[in-house]
Amino acid sequence: MQASSIPVRETGGQLPAYAWPGGYPLFYLDNHGSVLCADCATDTLDDEYSAELVACDINYEEPLMYCDQCDKHIEPAYGDD
Question: Domain ranges in the chain?
Fold first, then answer.
């Protein structure tokens, strides 16, 4: 996996949950190796005592990806429903 840099916050201050264009679901990684949903990644940016976000990528095919903080399912772009 080749992760990209952290995207710019959307209007309202939230990190995007989906890539544009395409609408592919995004996940974030912190410097402890935790997988985060967009909401928890935004909270991490807002908390000066949290881990640092280091990457963002699209979940193309991993059906069992969950946020390590809130346990929210990060659905894959492709694969079985």
Answer: 1-81
